[in-house]
Amino acid sequence: MIVPDSIEGAVLLSVIDFTLSIVMISGIGFILALFPLFNRLGKVDEAKLRQGQH
Q1: Among 8, 12, 24, 46, which residue carries the largest CB count within 10 Å?
Q2: How far is residue 16 CA from its own chain's centroid?
Q3: What is the DSSP string of 1-54?
Q4: How far apart (Å, rounded) are the C-alpha atoms in residues 39 and 37?
């Protein structure tokens, strides 16, 4: 699909760009929201590490 070089084409590209940026920002936000979960899953018992038990 070729976007015409006109006001309608510019508006169409702006809408597509806005939509894709919202999708990307939401995706990044979702990934960042998962970091606390990853932190809980990878919890290390420091007392066991100090005793030399892995």
Answers
A1: 12
A2: 19
A3: -PPPSSHHHHHHHHHHHHHHHHHHHHHHHHHHHHHHHHHHHT---HHHHHHT--
A4: 5
What pLDDT was estimated at residue 54?
55
Owner of token pair 């939509």: 19
C-alpha pair distances (Å), 33 with each of 13, 28, 40, 44, 53: 30, 9, 13, 21, 31
Task: Determine the pLDDT at residue 53.
Answer: 61
With contact defined as beta carbons under 8 Å apart, do 3 and 15 qualify?
A: no
This prediction has a pTM of: 0.62
C-alpha neighbours within 13 Å on the C-beta side of residue 6: 4
